[in-house]
Design a protein that fits this description.
The protein has 250 residues and is an alpha+beta fold. Helices cover 28% and strands 26% of the residues. It is built from four helices and 15 strands. It has a five-stranded antiparallel beta sheet. Helix 1 crosses helix 2 and helix 3 packs antiparallel against helix 4. It starts with 7 loop residues before the first helix and ends with a strand. It binds 2-amino-4-trifluoromethylsulfanyl-butyric acid and cobalt (II) ion (CO). The site of cobalt (II) ion (CO) has 5 residues, from loops.
Length: 250
């Protein structure tokens, strides 16, 4: 499958899907609190998505059972919401949400602290991970390469003493949730596919406090850090345009 470039009209549709995802995540951020379960977040998200007239993108995708991925602490991505997982003060929770509206997908993620205060080291993990996403976005320019995006993310993460997950990567997005190209959060400048006008990339750094190695739990979905350290995840969908990067998920 080749990389699909989108017209301005298609990008406008993706902006609408992206805007819904953003509103859902903004709402969920206010729901996160000690005592709330990850299944509470799931139910809140499903109601919001339907309210906006969109459809959840993840539920049923390769038989994934939920609307959200909710990944707590050492969980990196693809945590499955559960009424048994109660958020506690000092936890961090990554919330990943995708929707489809009028045939076009939107996909974004945030990591949120639970309760009034978390460990300052974890606060730094969240800050550096989100900053690394914006370092990557800054590289989304016609003529740059996928390696420029990954290198920018990687340099910022490793420069701050954290590590980048290799086993999971960002992706193209459009009329399918996952399109070409893959968008790793590591790489070499000038390497990989060249960015062309109309490409839309979901950039999603997954950053571990400790070592980069991962494993997948017995539920076949939940990816965790091999060393048990905490992990953060932020994601935006970004269009390549003549005017530089345009974030569609805001
Ligand atoms: N944002 C994640 C991704 O792009 C969500 C996929 S979860 C799945 O891979 F359930 F849909 F697979
Ligand atoms: Co994604």
């Amino acid at each position: 499958m080749a990389i699909v470039c989108k017209t301005a009209a298609e990008i406008e549709k993706m902006r609408r899907s992206g805007h819904i995802v953003r509103q859902v995540l903004d709402y969920l951020r206010t729901v996160v609190a000690p005592g709330v379960t990850t299944m509470d977040l799931e139910h809140a998200a499903e109601a919001k998505i339907r309210e906006f007239g969109a459809k959840p993108a993840f539920k049923g995708y390769y038989d994934y059972p939920c609307v959200l991925c909710t990944s707590v602490n050492e969980e990196i991505v693809h945590g499955i919401p559960s009424e048994k997982r109660t958020l506690e003060t000092g936890d961090i929770v990554s919330i990943d949400c995708g929707v489809v509206l009028d045939g076009y997908y939107g996909d974004a993620a945030i990591t949120v602290p639970v309760g009034a205060k978390i460990d300052p080291e974890l606060e730094k993990l969240l800050k550096v991970t989100e900053e690394s996403l914006y370092r990557g976005i800054e590289q989304v320019r016609i003529g740059n390469s996928i390696g420029d995006v990954g290198a920018a993310v990687q340099e910022h993460v490793e420069g701050n003493g954290f590590s980048v997950v290799r086993e999971f990567v960002g992706h193209g997005i459009g009329t399918r949730l996952h399109e070409e190209p893959q968008v790793p959060n590591y790489g070499s400048r000038g390497h990989g596919a060249r960015l062309r006008e109309g490409m839309v990339l979901a950039i999603e750094p997954m950053v571990n406090f400790g070592k980069p190695e991962t494993r997948v739990l017995g539920d076949k979905w939940t990816a965790v850090t091999a060393d048990g350290s905490c992990s953060a995840h932020f994601e935006h969908c970004v269009a390549v345009t003549k005017n530089g990067p345009v974030i569609l998920t805001q």
